[in-house]
User: Fold these one by one.
Assistant:
Number 1:
Amino acid sequence: MTQAYDTRRTAVLLVDPYNDFISEGGKLWPRLEPVAKEVGLVDHLRTVIASAREARIQVMFVPHRQWEPGDYDTWAHPNPTQRGIQERHSFARGTWGGEFHPDLQPQAGDIVIHQHWAQSGFANTDLDFQLKQHDISHVVVVGVLANTCIESTSRFAMELGYHVTLVRDATAAFLPEMMHAAHELNGPTFAHAILTTEELVSAFEAART
Amino acid sequence: MTQAYDTRRTAVLLVDPYNDFISEGGKLWPRLEPVAKEVGLVDHLRTVIASAREARIQVMFVPHRQWEPGDYDTWAHPNPTQRGIQERHSFARGTWGGEFHPDLQPQAGDIVIHQHWAQSGFANTDLDFQLKQHDISHVVVVGVLANTCIESTSRFAMELGYHVTLVRDATAAFLPEMMHAAHELNGPTFAHAILTTEELVSAFEAART
Amino acid sequence: MTQAYDTRRTAVLLVDPYNDFISEGGKLWPRLEPVAKEVGLVDHLRTVIASAREARIQVMFVPHRQWEPGDYDTWAHPNPTQRGIQERHSFARGTWGGEFHPDLQPQAGDIVIHQHWAQSGFANTDLDFQLKQHDISHVVVVGVLANTCIESTSRFAMELGYHVTLVRDATAAFLPEMMHAAHELNGPTFAHAILTTEELVSAFEAART
Amino acid sequence: MTQAYDTRRTAVLLVDPYNDFISEGGKLWPRLEPVAKEVGLVDHLRTVIASAREARIQVMFVPHRQWEPGDYDTWAHPNPTQRGIQERHSFARGTWGGEFHPDLQPQAGDIVIHQHWAQSGFANTDLDFQLKQHDISHVVVVGVLANTCIESTSRFAMELGYHVTLVRDATAAFLPEMMHAAHELNGPTFAHAILTTEELVSAFEAART
């Protein structure tokens, strides 16, 4: 699949690159490790971000809420994942697990979106607004998890009128069948392009010339 | 799994019950038929709606855009499903396929939400607003397709702060593995309850007393 | 005030040009007539739309809900305007008052947005989505009423990231002090440009060359 | 005007109680002082919040973005107010002006909503979501400025399906005619109740019994 990008109208959305998810020693890393290693997750995230920076494509960090004491306690109906976070304290503010992976840190010119409470980086945040104020029409959604935050962020992006690209080896999930669902069953119904990192980098390079 | 409902705060969202989807002779029926027959889709939809009416639970119809000539033609980037509709003319206004199934017709007191362009019944419609004006906190999302419109409507409902129930045999999809993805892989991350029609009806009956 | 427009990225949003509002004999015309005649409302709306068409600028109709029997009756809290419509049946579907002014009819290529229930043309409609699918970044908001639908649509447009232009003599209100509030007190805090029809037409003409 | 509240379904939204706005020495205080003193702004805000706490009504802080270096610099079209903040550095993070008034500090059980970029506390924040997760149907919107953030937050609240109360002497503006516009011209079209602090306190006291 080939796809053309206008570097001034495209953004890479890097979702939840927390140590707790993608770094050895992270709270959720043991569940993610098999798929993450099989697809080369962290290497590919480094490659996608480096390629975007070389092409002067906007990078936006789209972070989940960093857990704080009291979170979700007064809510009428936290979802199953949020009830899990209440116990596990995933991405806790002030801890190593709640920091971004050391190779995936914001740089000058990047934009860090408001934290999302659940799965979609658009819900209850300024992501749509920041995309408009930076004149972005095309989003490339990478990071974790393929079938939760990446998929919900991408489903919302499509409903909001954006062109959506998924990158099948710049994401991961707890089970291989979740990757299959994200990229073979569901993604093809809402995403405009589903690429490999290699294909994306070629497209970004082509867009630079 | 048991789940309690307040009949005054609950709504059943019936998504896309078009002849083209769920009736013999419909344009998409051949793709849906195997799963629909296996789960007893139309029987269960009849049962869910009848049970809701007996319990005086609000029923809302959540319909996809009825295709009209020119639809999507000037859009910057219709999604893959929309490009398919451009060719197939699914749910065309003024045709039998674009009518609701004869046993699933709106009655006095039901609310028909504005038509959605893509998968989520919340996106670009008055669904959230109508739920608030009717003081609904809990939504039960039934109809088709399990992994597209039902799942996107439910993901949005959760992000908007609603309690979300899926009903595993009151929906269908093109492939059994799409049902598995919707109810075993993805649903458990965002839905507050995943029931069978029988369990839902018991809960509605319990709520009436 | 001068303002430059890219004709491919600009849309004119024509809000609520119903006979009940802006035509002699309309239900609300007697309240609007003094200001409407003073500013030359209908003439200026004709001029704005004609100028947009000549420049091939997208025109979008942004209509209020056409009243139907039962509207608002089951709502928890209709707003004061909606309670008025329940009595007056303004913009009733199937009546002359619920039709657009004869000189302000949609033409091929125009887009008619879903009907809004209250004041903002963005709330509970597909307006934001249609703007994105047509790659619009700048909106010019004209029609009625200056301090209700025009102002709420414009406040929403700014919050959603659009560039917003008001046109002080292509709108009207029930009282002169409402016009003053819209254009001298409130508009300057959220609108990016506040022009006269003459200034807008000059800007559109300049954009054509 | 009398209005009844259910204490479990009501929230007070306290918008932008920053020193820069409402405290002597604040950057914008000189422009606000005449109206603020005339209506007794800070005294009435203290009274509203104290009354809400006694009735166990949820208090939510709805803060504007605290200015940081770089804010708005890369945006396509900041609005006139935002361009002013770029120069004035109003509500700068880490400064006294960017702190809440000492008598209007969050307490245990209060909720602090994500910061808004412009006027509406709902736009690009988690306000709607937090209201739903706390089962709130009625909002009382107080703080500043009457015709910008209070009015936009209230217009959005109505469009989102909430019952909206304005409090005419628990807000202020730069000019008396802006107060007139907010409470006599515009508010009556979208707000369900417009009270004085005294009337609100009586209603809250009645709701406690």
Number 2:
Amino acid sequence: MRLNIHLTAALSLPAPTPTTLMVEAADLGAAQRLEESRLYVTPFRVAEPFRDFYHNPCRRLLMPAGDVRLEYVATVSLPGARPAGGEAYEADALHLPTETLLYTLPSRYCQSDLLVAMAADLFGGVRPGFARVQAVCDWINAHVTYQYGASDTGTSAYDTAAQRVGVCRDFAHLGIALCRALNVPARYVSGYCLGLVPPDFHAYFQAWVNGRWADFDATSALPRPALVRVAVGRDAADCAWATFYGYGETRWLSAEVTEARDDAEGDTET
Amino acid sequence: MRLNIHLTAALSLPAPTPTTLMVEAADLGAAQRLEESRLYVTPFRVAEPFRDFYHNPCRRLLMPAGDVRLEYVATVSLPGARPAGGEAYEADALHLPTETLLYTLPSRYCQSDLLVAMAADLFGGVRPGFARVQAVCDWINAHVTYQYGASDTGTSAYDTAAQRVGVCRDFAHLGIALCRALNVPARYVSGYCLGLVPPDFHAYFQAWVNGRWADFDATSALPRPALVRVAVGRDAADCAWATFYGYGETRWLSAEVTEARDDAEGDTET
Amino acid sequence: MRLNIHLTAALSLPAPTPTTLMVEAADLGAAQRLEESRLYVTPFRVAEPFRDFYHNPCRRLLMPAGDVRLEYVATVSLPGARPAGGEAYEADALHLPTETLLYTLPSRYCQSDLLVAMAADLFGGVRPGFARVQAVCDWINAHVTYQYGASDTGTSAYDTAAQRVGVCRDFAHLGIALCRALNVPARYVSGYCLGLVPPDFHAYFQAWVNGRWADFDATSALPRPALVRVAVGRDAADCAWATFYGYGETRWLSAEVTEARDDAEGDTET
Amino acid sequence: MRLNIHLTAALSLPAPTPTTLMVEAADLGAAQRLEESRLYVTPFRVAEPFRDFYHNPCRRLLMPAGDVRLEYVATVSLPGARPAGGEAYEADALHLPTETLLYTLPSRYCQSDLLVAMAADLFGGVRPGFARVQAVCDWINAHVTYQYGASDTGTSAYDTAAQRVGVCRDFAHLGIALCRALNVPARYVSGYCLGLVPPDFHAYFQAWVNGRWADFDATSALPRPALVRVAVGRDAADCAWATFYGYGETRWLSAEVTEARDDAEGDTET
């Protein structure tokens, strides 16, 4: 499947402001191939590319004062079929790759240390592995209400565990926190999603099961038709699409994702 | 049933400290008759009796510096049988007695405003009335683990909703908060309980159902053999057995409750 | 001084909803005389008056589904001069009137138990009495930024102590919590205020100093020209202008307060 | 200066438990030379060494059930004099090395996003650079009380900002959060400290000023005579000396640090 991504955003800044952007689709080889990827800042500024701690593609620049327009255009090619679940197993903590251990620890929005009893109560009896993480997602999907405006940037998994209302970011945080409380490495993914209404950034998570990072999306009862990863991190604090070192306001934002129709190439993957 | 209550406590204070005590069993007429009730402070101090906002029996005094010993001895007579549930009904908010409305509002440890979605998710489909409050208690009893030391005086219903571990105070707070989130008036009760191990103060709650305040105790899967009410309030903040206007330390405390054996009176209620 | 109050509000309700209203100016004798006070609900409904726990004037009614318009018109007469401070003293906790003790305890939005060290650090060295409470207000006014939208109905004094941004409700909560942490009884007041822009409800607080409840308003560096009390309580949870037992949305609200010009009466109090 | 470190700890585990240990002094070249470093687990187990995300020296092993004794013995050589402050400057966010940007983001225990107004209020007028971070430490040292037992493993910088009481871990978290709120990269350091009573692990922090990571210790009004770094991370969640994937209890722990007296070598660095 090939996807076109078209992000447009209007920002307003009271003063020139150092800013980090994380809006570019990651280039992950066969798993997510970046055919085209262009970022425009108007008025024109060079946005210096760099990789953060997690090797996510980032840019930084001095945003000018006043109105700024961002546009990001990309074409991404995803494999036609997701890898099957394979034999379900889950490494115990002793045999996890050491680079996954960071993702077992609590973080800003995923206070897994406080949700150990809840996770044990709900999922302690479920057999470890892919199905258990799916059970976490199913529980969240059934018991947390999706509602704009009921949460904000201060809302954490701890809040969502009690308040049971939020948006994709909150669903992901709760999923991550419950996985970590079960000693399953889990990390946050920001990205693009085909079929979202309204067209916006999306957030989901990955858990380390069956020896790989597998995608999970607690916001949706059904598997998503296509997810495009931008950044991974411990939670939303690490994956903000824009981090202003100062103040910046997002006036509006649209992240359209459409399936690329390219007859010439005879795309048969749909 | 007649009960003897014997409270002994050792306090230590660095300086003379104004203190409010709420340790005396309430005299509630037939529902809880106070046959005897004596409070001793050593070194001797007069503890002035008064009624607080909720008409609970309180005392206040200037606690002397150093070691202070408290002793409270009471005999309480309770009706042999609890009033039956009667026809189950629950007043809607419009027809609640106005004096119960205070107990529909959130309080320090019972943030019912934040648990509306959780209450609706868990109990929205249960028929209102006594049975629904009992369902709240049953859920708490099944999903919250009783454990000393896992909570402290800062722990609230919001915390317990997520952390799912605590003591009787926390069980009561969560029960109250969930009831209020369902628009059922609920209040905290501090008191004494027959059969507690170790012998300590107890906390439970009352909900307004079937036109009266009915006792509920989420800490126990079975009905308690006997509960003796000391104080009611919106939550533990209103019912502390000792409030120090300054600093005071409780070195130890024992609250023994035993069934009075009074052959002469031919007590046949057991 | 005589004031005209004109409240208009537009509500929208998805279903008939039991509702409590607290919008009427209190009649406090010479301290605040209610000359006229009329509440209209459109479509017409009878709103039954009652007194709550704190003896505040309340109304309750079954709000009809759909659009509802509220109008409240009042004329209030206030004494021309506020009582002078008098000799500054502050009762210690032992000699406080028992009916003020409730207001030394923590509540939903005023977690004084958690701010004891902060209060002692900032105000422990200030001589007790009126001036110390004023010092609390001055500190809040200097260190908390007034900003719409930076706080919400979940924000508490604990949050404001750290976040240092909010609206009048938050300023009042922090003032109350710091007073209680100093063992000074303090309570929340909702009401009307002359000169507010935009014209809205106001919140301030009262502390028990010099043997009476004195008004304090941490939101303003200067004394307010006129404050009209509607309700008192432990915090905003007790004084909400509308409590919906269900769901209700406020589309807009205006609370205009103007000085009454009544030449005929020869009002010489200005 | 040469230091001997002697850590002894007694653990108790109900079952064999995968465990990560971070107790070994880091080998940082001239800045902190590791002359000797030996870790013993009794009963004997091999503790596999690895480097975590931050390149901290870690070990992991399957802790056996029952009583386990840990002993760590090290000799560390530190430069006789700390590098002088040099010309004070602080990079703006645009010119920070990209590898420091992670440490400008909020984390589990350092919610810098919530303390922006507090940091601006207290330190907005202080000239950026080393002296401003020192001003942060001085403020914390003056306004937060050091007290065992007043905080726990759930306590965060947000709590300490309001509660103003805690231990070295809390002091470090608040320092880090305030620095990040000022856009100064700051990170947590766990380690050993000469002269602590009782001998325990220590926590302090580093801020990126003058183009390097500089040590700061808000717990102490005076500079520490010697700090030995074990691990760095975003906060205490990343630097726990023992992380149990299951349950483990620390029965007691002692971390003695003494100055090495080695006449033969003619140590003249004191």
Number 3:
Amino acid sequence: MSDQLRQPSPELFFETVNAYQRTATIKAALELDVFTAIGEGRRTIQALAARCETSERGMRILCDYLVILSFLTKVNGQYGLTQDSALFLDRRSEAYIGNATEFLLSPMIMDGFEDIVAAVRKGGTVIPEDGTVAPENPVWVKFARGMASMMALPAKLIAKFLDIGDGRNLKVLDIAASHGLFGIEIALLNPNAEVVALDWPNVLEVAKENAQNAGVSERYSTLEGSAFDVNYGNGYDIVLLTNFLHHFDPSTCEGLLKKVHASLAAGGRVVTLEMVANEDRVSPPIPASFSMIMLASTPRGDAYTFSELQRMFENTGFLHNELHQLPPTMQRIVISHK
Amino acid sequence: MSDQLRQPSPELFFETVNAYQRTATIKAALELDVFTAIGEGRRTIQALAARCETSERGMRILCDYLVILSFLTKVNGQYGLTQDSALFLDRRSEAYIGNATEFLLSPMIMDGFEDIVAAVRKGGTVIPEDGTVAPENPVWVKFARGMASMMALPAKLIAKFLDIGDGRNLKVLDIAASHGLFGIEIALLNPNAEVVALDWPNVLEVAKENAQNAGVSERYSTLEGSAFDVNYGNGYDIVLLTNFLHHFDPSTCEGLLKKVHASLAAGGRVVTLEMVANEDRVSPPIPASFSMIMLASTPRGDAYTFSELQRMFENTGFLHNELHQLPPTMQRIVISHK
């Protein structure tokens, strides 16, 4: 219905004010492992309450709320998983992403939303010491552990997109490597790819663990420190810049991109994975609203538009940039050519 | 798109985990009075930042997020109010409901969502002393002050619905009167209506203030105490039971309804205003999800279905019950006849 035709309603206001209740409920549902219990075939309140060790009354109210939020189905009083819940929220699924809450709901991120008035006044985070971009912030170990599950698919899609499975020699630099999955997927696809992962030492422990588990440790080395300070070396065919630029303002990004440009071999490419907002800055909803997370948790970060990213790359010597969707993920990639 | 046809997506999970950010943002927008500033004609980031004393960068990110959430429009970089935001969130509007956050986001309500796992296990609130239903809980003064704006419309609609504007003598009991608006609107519509308002003494101060402002004080008296203990008197034509039964379990409700039945004159009516869930308990979204608020904040409260309410009234001697919508509000009324 168009805004003009329908009756005025306080519903959006009421739902938005109470939205924190959704966060609290999905967190509890994951902790109680309700999705796994339903996936195992428990479809009644009685069976679910017994399996998850809760009261029946509490389980009934929880499951009904999860139906309202579209995480569950309810037919004749029996609960079922939606396609997405079966894939992403049943702990037995390989694509389980429930542990992303360890990062997404970590105090470092949530604290930034305690006082949005102050953040809007200031124009950046009011968390002390620059919020999430403080050196060696332990929140990035949580990211590396918790978000790996959400990044597994984009990592596979990017490796495939790059068309490097032909066994050519390939030197890859993974900046702010985190869990390391982006570089590791390339190493898995191309047996002659060598990956250098750069991050804080505590975070690199997670990347090395993952490289070990993937069986690519011999072609996996690390550079410890800040991406702004460490010497990258040179001759890279591919530089991975995933979930990184959004933490900084454009001039800081450009400082980094100059270093990246210098480290690339002729014909080298940068792969930037980002929450890219459309030029209107209000769509698509998830990437565009990512700006608010950056306002709350960083001094000057943002969800950049493609034209803003393009400008940063052009200002630092790159020849041209392509924007690509990465469905079904919420993110997009920019490929920038030296 | 049907759930079967579209690609799997982690979007719902991501949005739900981050939903608390919506709460934080609407709260900040109201505190900064952004809606009023736009209503006054400030439509650019520069003008809004100046008026609300914020950074331009923070205001831009805030306003874009409010567009994403559908509170604002954005056309050619200029922001505007939606119909609902103009009516409900511009402080100059008579229907302004922004101060409802004083109650909706009071610690007493929000604390109940700190540990939903524990509430689901227990089957009721884990807030000490029975949560919001503790005697003389000061949260009800916040309700009376903050929620009056949201209850003004249902109060008018109910008074009109009751068809009592003909000047007949009318004795009205308003149980858990809070701001008093439900009784006051009846007194405004019928000059021979006498209203008795029952609530905790601290809450009745708000009701008396509102009765005074409405010019009906002479026909407005009060009964201090708990609705479960106080002697109501008798001979009432109408008993108002607004936003009350959902706090208690059915047997507690029935204990109260017996008292209510005894207090009514022959042919008397009870008006119950409630978040009434459909029989499936998962629709309509707002009333059905109200169960979760009751789980988090009361020992045994619920968003009852019509058949559950009907059973309580039938068990306590009422002859028949009618369910009525109260558009455009989110609530419904049940009229029960002695």
Number 4:
Amino acid sequence: MRIYRYEENPIVTPADVKPFHEGFEVIGTFNAGIAKYKDEVLMFLRVAERPISDDPNIVQAPIYNPDTGTLELIRLRKDDVRYEFADPRVVKDVTQNVGFAYLTSISYIRIARSKDGRRFTVDDQPFIYPSDKSEVFGIEDPRVTQIGDTYYIYFSVVSPNGIGVSMVSTKDFESARRHGMIFCPDNKDVLIFPEKVNGKYYALHRPTMKSIGSPEIWIAESENLIHWGNHKHLIGLREAMWDWGRIGGGAVPIRTDKGWLELYHGASKEHRYCMGAVLLDLDDPSHVVARSLKPILEPEAEYERNGFFGDVVFSCGALVEGDIVKMYYGVADTSMACAELSLQEILDSLTEI
Amino acid sequence: MRIYRYEENPIVTPADVKPFHEGFEVIGTFNAGIAKYKDEVLMFLRVAERPISDDPNIVQAPIYNPDTGTLELIRLRKDDVRYEFADPRVVKDVTQNVGFAYLTSISYIRIARSKDGRRFTVDDQPFIYPSDKSEVFGIEDPRVTQIGDTYYIYFSVVSPNGIGVSMVSTKDFESARRHGMIFCPDNKDVLIFPEKVNGKYYALHRPTMKSIGSPEIWIAESENLIHWGNHKHLIGLREAMWDWGRIGGGAVPIRTDKGWLELYHGASKEHRYCMGAVLLDLDDPSHVVARSLKPILEPEAEYERNGFFGDVVFSCGALVEGDIVKMYYGVADTSMACAELSLQEILDSLTEI
């Protein structure tokens, strides 16, 4: 597989973005959704900001207060035995059997704009910012599906009540209409198909189970993009392979003659995130046609291997021009990069199922 | 609170039901949904059958094979250190961070019919039986909502891919139409309201989270009962109270002058299951009006305290006649019982929020 990584990579880094919160530092500008609007490429950056610490023994967890509209900080002592601080992204409560109790940063969505898709200018203000109790820990990993002249932007919302996926829509990227939570917790990595298939909208999603089951890709259908049902398990983890740990949809599915091409992420048991591809039936996307045995993109460049959380390539959006797939992707939970691949080469690389 | 438990309790027990599977024993006839059809009360029993063991050192886990349409048995040695057998309902894989790996019984739905609501005759054949890969570990805890002359029956479906909620509909209880999975894993305890509220259908549901969040009650809306969205967190666990461990909807919400009355179950940290009530706004059921400080029904009778999994009262359906609430409920994960309560007394017992 030929991979052309842009010379400009990483194309947006935390140094390019001024913090929105006073006393905070930007630690991540990553996992951006992508759209074309007029003559520009828009990148919907997940911007992660962390309170600047005044004490190395204290970890501060930012929480949005929907009543006051301000951020509040929880101060946690690193020697507090109730908590575990090994993962830099989260604080775990060792007395609770859940993944985490607090996040160490708060994320929201900011737009970056470009004429050439390589050099971006980041807006000064957030585009989507936490607004209610479902979003008090932040908003993450947006994806964008254009249907007609409407852009649907959906993203993970995080709160003590769970991680779900909410959606807004806009035609001009100035105002946005909120549609509420379209997938309830525990869910993320939703990707809405860009057109109806046999009269129905489809979406990929990635529930995370506690009772039984693994973090794998499911498919659902809808008549109005807001209410979803007929959920079906689509593809699973593969033992001893690059996608054994967890998988989730990445870019909005791409219509090809051979089927719907989904660029998805897979992580190993050691949390190394790669990108692969799966091909779904054109008339029935709940039927899997073919899948990558090997990744189409692995963390190899220095900026992919090192960062806030290293060894991660994680795409939330791609643009297709003829045979060229411009895959934008977050690197190391820190910055944005872009690589061009051949659509035909991706399709040829897949193994029939 | 006055509680009138039927003299006939338990009204259906495993001894009343002939196993459907050869070589199996019925260990549970419980957690039944309830409907009125013509001049009869129909009980949609969850029937749990367990393979009769030929060796005390072996636990057998039944799995439905959708390709052959038959049950297969996995044999697990009790001295196999990879597994844990402490909970009689499940087998845990100690190497996996999920709730369970296998169930020790398989459940499906069978109808019991009665003229007086006390003496039931159980159908010989299953009404809803596993049919696809989402149901290979069985079908559990049905609820029934009547809308017009159509009955919607929805239930937990269990497989290695997760626990979700699927739905069928019928007008005659002879044939049933399948509508697929309406809530994806990890979810159960769905309750569909019996009429539209301000132009939309509503349902309660109970996601279970792994990342963050507790097993609490959410509310969603729909236009067609099949696709669901606008998910909102509704009520949570309460520290050091009877519903601190987990909660979930029980009976179909009851329309009263004061609001929608939901009879829900709550379990303590020690897995003692009680029934309580919550009142939701008549025009906006996502708004909570009042809630039980104390349970309205606790496991006190011998048949409620002792059984396959003791100290459990768990209602999946109730009938309302004037001021009388006939609450049918599963006892000790074993049998069915019924108690009559006063609707007014339940309403009067609630504490405003």
